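re: that chain from earlier
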Amino acid sequence: MTSAVVAQISISSAACEAVGTAYRTDCLAKELQALVKKLPAQGEYAAAREALATASAELAGLSRQNRDNSQPRLRITVQADSETKRRPVSAVKPETVAETNAKALAILEDTTTVLLRSVEGNNDVALHYQRIAQALNSSKVLLRS
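^ sequence. v structure.
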């Protein structure tokens, strides 16, 4: 399961990298939301699911607050588990791109912290969550200007 999650974060990051910086916050929100749907609500991955769901919701809200309705919605294509998904993503206003991406970066940093803290004392699950946090960390490069 961990390998699938890490791989999907990597694939999602590559797909979001292909769109302009104005679209990346919404892209990451949609990709995390899709990932959350694949994680079990109970058991070892429940805390990871909750942390990623929170991040997705916060990123979506941030994107919505700064949406640029004058820009077209793009359809990104993401390969996931032998199926291809096409998701529409929206741009943020050009004047808010830097600030929006900085806030999105902070959301991802908070999420990695939550992931790492949620398994303190549970060595069986800690390695899995560390790998997920590391994959999420690598996607932060998309938001740096």
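Residues 2-143 form one domain.
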